[in-house]
């Protein structure tokens, strides 16, 4: 749809599984209007009510009888059964299986665009059963579909977050939305070496190691709790070299204004804000997507190859009921101005990682076969010693 036409009548949106509105905030920034939000979790509802005042709200997709007449339907359906940090029960699990209610609603309506977001693991779990179910259902409904794995760092935020963005339409070309842009990943020299992110809840089989960035903010963790990743700041004094960002930092790392989730405190304990932010869509991703929904570009089909059913799902593909194609594009549609980790997270405000968390992580790390800088292990040791001394003094 040309931008000129959008200026006359803005595209309208129905946000299902809306969470804290990451998709809708990005689409709103390009002039779209949200006509419906559907979200069952009360802390998330509190955030939506404050941030999208006056927008009609429905509390359960299972009881949503029909969709309003809108141009765009968005649905970041629950990843609980698909993510590596979740139950991995699959697309038909109790939570992720909620996507079937979206499919049912689409039986009776035909929006111009359907937008879905979910975790990278949906491409691989159970040999791609989740993605096969999704595309097969859209093919049955007569849609052309496309998806692309993107890294949120392309928007400029220092968070290495890989997510599948799926777009489908009965009347438009989703390839012209998802594949028109391809900037390629930033060279390694673009990242500073003054901060490294890692998962303190891991240490047995992985670190989530990220240079000048945090690994993916999650709604859960290897220990089953929503929590912040940690940061190692080489050269900082013991006790300040291993720290965790604040919840406001996490909001900024997802592209939200700081304080976006404060309203959740009206209905839940403070820790729930980490789960809300970890489950959200990075705002910059939906902002890029919104621009392309308004003004699709040109897609060069060079290099695409036929994707037979049953093959491993690539990082980007498109198809319809007739044929499927793998697409050779990167996870970086654009290269937004990069905000370095220590320019987003104030190291002086960040809380030191607790003694218990540090010793637990360091112990797991030493027993593992993971590769890591020796200086990192030494920094953990010194941090634990300083924290132990603080405990004794207090």
Can I get a quick summary?
The chain is of the alpha/beta class and 394 residues long. The protein is built from twelve helices and 17 strands.
Write up this protein.
- The protein is α/β, with parallel strands linked by helices and 394 residues long.
- Helices cover 28% and strands 17% of the residues.
- The chain is built from 12 helices and 17 strands.
- It has helices spanning 3-8, 22-29, 42-51, 99-106, 129-140, 175-178, 247-253, 272-278, 283-294, 341-344, 355-367, 374-393, and strands spanning 12-16, 33-38, 57-58, 72-75, 113-119, 144-151, 159-160, 162-169, 196-198, 210-211, 214-215, 230-232, 242-244, 305-306, 316-319, 324-326, 351-352.
- The strands form 3 sheets. It has a 10-stranded mixed beta sheet, sandwiched between helices. It has a 5-stranded antiparallel beta sheet with strand order 10-9-12-13-17.
- Helix 2 (22-29) links the parallel strand 1 (12-16) and strand 2.
- Helix 11 (355-367) packs antiparallel against helix 12 (374-393).
- It starts with a helix and ends with a helix.
- The model is unreliable at 81-91 (pLDDT under 50).
């Amino acid at each position: 749809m040309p931008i000129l036409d959008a200026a006359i009548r803005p595209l309208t949106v129905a946000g299902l599984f809306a969470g804290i509105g990451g998709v809708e905030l990005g689409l709103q920034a390009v002039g779209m209007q949200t006509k419906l939000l559907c979200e069952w979790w009360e802390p998330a509802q509190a955030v939506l009510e404050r941030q999208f005042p006056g927008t009609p709200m429905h509390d359960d997709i299972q009881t949503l009888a029909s969709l309003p007449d809108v141009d765009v339907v968005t649905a970041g359906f629950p990843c609980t059964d698909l993510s590596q940090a979740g139950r991995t029960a699959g697309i038909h699990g109790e939570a992720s299986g909620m996507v079937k209610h979206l499919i049912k609603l689409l039986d009776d309506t035909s929006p111009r665009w359907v937008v879905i977001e979910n975790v990278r693991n949906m491409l691989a779990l159970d040999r791609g059963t989740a993605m096969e179910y999704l595309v097969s259902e859209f093919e049955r409904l007569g849609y052309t579909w496309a998806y692309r794995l993107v890294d949120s760092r392309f928007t400029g935020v220092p968070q290495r977050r890989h997510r599948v963005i799926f777009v489908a339409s009965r009347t438009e070309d989703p390839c012209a939305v998802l594949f028109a842009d391809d900037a390629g990943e930033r060279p390694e020299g673009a990242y500073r070496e003054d901060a490294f992110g890692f998962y303190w809840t891991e240490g047995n089989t992985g670190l989530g190691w990220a240079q000048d960035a945090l690994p993916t903010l999650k709604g859960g963790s290897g220990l089953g709790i929503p929590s912040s990743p940690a940061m190692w700041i080489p050269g900082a004094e013991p006790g300040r070299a291993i720290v965790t960002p604040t919840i406001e930092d996490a909001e900024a790392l997802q592209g939200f204004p700081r304080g976006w989730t404060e309203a959740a405190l009206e209905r839940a304990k403070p820790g729930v804000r980490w789960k809300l932010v970890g489950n959200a869509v990075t705002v910059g991703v939906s902002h890029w997507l919104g621009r392309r929904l308004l003004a699709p570009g040109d897609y060069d089909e060079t290099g695409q190859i036929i994707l037979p059913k049953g093959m491993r799902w690539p990082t980007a593909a498109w198809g319809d009921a007739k044929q499927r194609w793998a697409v050779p594009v990167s996870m970086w549609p654009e290269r937004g101005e990069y905000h370095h980790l220590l320019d987003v997270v104030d190291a002086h405000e960040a809380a030191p990682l607790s003694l218990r968390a540090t010793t637990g992580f360091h112990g797991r790390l030493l027993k593992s076969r993971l590769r890591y800088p020796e200086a990192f292990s030494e920094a953990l040791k010194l941090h634990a010693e300083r924290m132990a001394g603080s405990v004794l003094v207090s």
